[in-house]
Amino acid sequence: MKKLHYLLFSATLLAGTAQAQLKVEIAGVGSNQIPVAVAAFADESVAPEQVSAIIRADLERSGLFKVVDAGQAISDSASPDLAAFKARGVQALVVGSVARQPDGRLAVRYKLHDTVGGTQLSQLGGEVQPKYTRLQAHRIADDVYEKLTGTRGIFSTRIAYVKEDRANRNYTLAVADADGENEIVATRGREPIISPAWSPDGSKVAYVSMEDRKPVVYLQDLMTGRRNVISNVKGNNSAPAWAPNGNMLAVALSKDGNTEIYTVGADGTGHRRLTNSASIDTEPQFSADGQSIYFTSDRSGGPQIYKMSVSGGNPTRVTFNGNYNISPRVSSDGKTLAWISQRNGGFSLYAMDLASGQELRLADGATEPSFSPNGKYIMYATKGGGRVSLAVVSVDGRVKQRLTTKAGNIREPSWGPFMK
C-alpha cells in the first residue's frame, strides 16, 4: 500500500466538517458510455462507508460509464457468471470484499472482469485504517477507469478552492477530494484570498492574500500547516504558477512600475524578470515540459495569450480569435491550452489543440479554469442562481458536472496533481 502522503495533514490545520461541503450534480455524459456492473462488496458493512457506492459514484461522475446494478454482493474470491452479465449488455464487472483485521485495519480487495472476453483485467488489495476507506475506494475507481479507458483516473486526486462570504468578510482556502468530500481548511482570513496553485508534489499550495492591504504570494505547507512568504516586493505580487520540477514559480509583479512576469525560487529567493514591455504582462503558466511560459498581455491592444521561453526573450502570440483572451492553462501532456475568451458579450471557456490550432468552446459563463492532472477535464468557476460555484467539463465538451455549496460563493479552483 502506498504511503498516504496527502492525508497526513497536521493538527495545526483547521479541520472541516465530516459532511460533504460540495454537492456534485451531473449535467452531461459521454456519447459512448461503457456499461459496467459494480457489485456490492462482500462484508462491506464493516467499513464506515460503502466502498461499492463510492466506486459507483466516481464512475458515474466521469460521464464515461453506464453503471449497472449487479443485483447482488459478489466477493473477489468468487467465480461470477460473466456470460450472464454479458447477456445483459455489461462489458465489465467490479467485485470485491472488505474484512476487518485483528489490528483494526480494513483489508479492501477488488477484481475487474472483462465479461466479453471472459478474463480478469485487474485486481488490487490493501489494508487501510478505517478513516482511509474512501481513499481506497477512489483508488479502485482510478484503476477501473485506467483499465477501461487507457487514461489514468483522477478520483483520488484533490482540489483546492476559495470559499467567500463577502457579507461577513470571511475568506477560506480549502482542499477536498475531487468529489468535494473530506474538506479541510488550509487557511482563512478577513481579506480576499485568490489564485491557489498546487505544488507538483501536492504537499503545498501557493496563493495570494490581501491581508497586508496589498497582494502578497504565500506558500502553505499542507503537511505541517507552516506558511512562508514567496513574494512580497514593492507593488502587487500575484498569479503564482509552479514549474513542473517544483524548484521555482512564475509570478506577476509590479515592483518596477507596470506588471511584468518574473520567476522566483520555491524558497522565495532569486526574483528574475522575464518580460520587459510597456504593457501589462500577467497570469503566467508553465508549459508541460517546463521550457516555456504562457501568459496574458495587452501589448497588442487588448489582452491576448502569448508564449515565451522560460528564460525570457521575444514572445509569440497564441490567440487571435476574439479581442479579449485571458487565464491560460496547459494540460499535463502539453497538448491542450484552455483559456477564457470574451466573445458575443460573454465569457466562455475555450480549449485549443496546440498541434493543430483548432479551438472548441466548452462552456459559457466561465472563469478561472484548471486542468485535471490527466488532462481530460477542466474545472472552472461559474455564476448561477446568484452564487458562484464550480463546474467541470471534459475537454471534448460532452461531460459536464457542477459542484455547489449551500452558502456563499466558491471559486478559484485548482486541481491537484497525481500523488506518488
UniProtKB/TrEMBL annotation:
Key words of the record: Cell cycle, Cell division, Periplasm, Signal
Domain (TolB N-terminal): residue spans on this chain: 22-121
GO biological process, one term: protein import
Gene3D superfamilies found in the cross-reference section: TolB, C-terminal domain, TolB, N-terminal domain
Pfam families linked: PD40, TolB_N
Predominant location category: periplasm
InterPro entries linked to this entry: 6-blade_b-propeller_TolB-like, Tol-Pal_TolB, TolB_N, WD40
Gene Ontology CC terms: periplasmic space
Signal peptide as annotated in the record: 1-20
Subcellular location: Periplasm
Family designation: Belongs to the TolB family.
Job description of the protein: Part of the Tol-Pal system, which plays a role in outer membrane invagination during cell division and is important for maintaining outer membrane integrity.
Subunit structure comment from the entry: The Tol-Pal system is composed of five core proteins: the inner membrane proteins TolA, TolQ and TolR, the periplasmic protein TolB and the outer membrane protein Pal. They form a network linking the inner and outer membranes and the peptidoglycan layer.
HAMAP family: TolB
Name of the featured protein: Tol-Pal system protein TolB
